[in-house]
Amino acid sequence: MHSTNLATAPLHQANYTPKTFDLSKITLREFNQALHNVKDAAGESNWEVLNPKGSHAVAVGAEHAISIDVQGSVGYYCGGMNQNSTITVHGSAGPGVGENMMSGAIIVKGDASQYAGATGRGGLLVIEGNASSRCGISMKGINIVVRGNIGHMSAFMAQSGNLVVLGDAGDALGDSIYEARLFVRGSVKSLGADCIKKEMRPEHIAILKDLLDRAGITDVKPEEFSRYGSARTLYNFNIDNADAY
Predict the structure, then answer these.
(1) Are residues 71 and 137 in the same domain?
(2) What is the domain range of residue 144?
(3) Helix/strand/coil (H, E, C) string of 29-80?
(4) What's the total number of domains in the chain?
(5) Coiled coil where (predicted)?
(6) In angstroms, rounded to a whole number, what is the distance separating the alpha carbons of residues 86 and 201?
(7) pLDDT band at residue 43, thresholds of 50, 70 and 90?
(8) C-alpha dist (Å) from residue 144 to 25, 119, 133
(9) Within-domain flag for 162
(10) pLDDT digits (tens, 9 = 90+) for 77-132
(11) Could you count the other beta carbons within 10 Å of the beta carbon of residue 81?
(12) What span, in angstroms and rounded, lies between the C-alpha atoms of 225 and 211?
């Protein structure tokens, strides 16, 4: 699943021969340095990582329009600060996958641990399994699509962007949320402070349809989701709301 224009096209599989890096034979630092040394992204556009074996910080700081296929599960902070690259993890990801990513895409074929997409400023993070607690915490423009469920305190202090959940959401969804949009198809165990259920208008249906298309999800309809967001009562301190802070 790869894309060169995530704003307009779904992710798709490329056909060219990859540059292969085996982490059982080279160090992670050597691989990450090779990513930073790219001179011609068009000529080095497909990369493959073998034997990650839960390594931490795989493909951190990737900044070129290349596709990186990681053949196995990874540890914490995979794809952190990603710009432009499309990173596919053919396994599960530890804490902080896609933390502070700026653009591009990260696709996790399995599950993701806690605070996936934390502080993300842009790009698309797709988790095809479940995401643990604090998914999308303090998100600042990132789009996150989770096929499964998400854990408690997800979208805590979420400022902007979209969080799409095809499954269920845990306790305290959207606690102290700002202007991010939350779309949940399943049940929500509880809402956090200042997070409320909101009307799903045509413009939200359009946003959701676009995100589902870009994530390659065709088996659900946008109309099946509920929207949640900020009640905007905690923007400024008010003594009447003291118990909610």
Answers:
(1) no
(2) 130-230
(3) HHHHHHHHCCCCCCCCCEEEEECCCCCCCCCCCCCCCCEEEEECCECCCCCC
(4) 2
(5) none
(6) 31
(7) confident
(8) 33, 12, 14
(9) yes
(10) 999 999 999 999 999 999 999 999 999 999 999 999 999 999 999 999 999 999 99
(11) 18
(12) 13
| Residue 136 located in a structural domain | yes
Q: Which of 173, 170, 176 is nearest to 193 (CA)?
A: 176
155-167 tens-digit pLDDT: 999 999 999 999 9
Q: Can you tell me the distance from the alpha carbon of 245 to that of 243, in angstroms, rounded to the nearest whole number?
A: 6
185 is a domain residue: yes
Q: How far is CA 66 from CA 119, 172, 201, in A?
A: 23, 37, 36
**Are 193 and 174 a contacting pair, CB within 8 Å?**
no
**Structural domain contains residue 82:** yes
Beta bridge partners of 201: none
d(CA 65, CA 4): 7
Q: How far apart are CA 68 and CA 49, in angstroms?
A: 7
Are 143 and 69 in a shared domain?
no
Tell me how far apart the 2 most distant CA atoms of the chain are, in Å.
62
Cα angle vertex 101, ends 60, 105, to 5°?
Answer: 90
Residues, the chain: 245
Structure tokens, 119: 């502080």
What span, in angstroms and rounded, lies between the C-alpha atoms of 68 and 101?
15
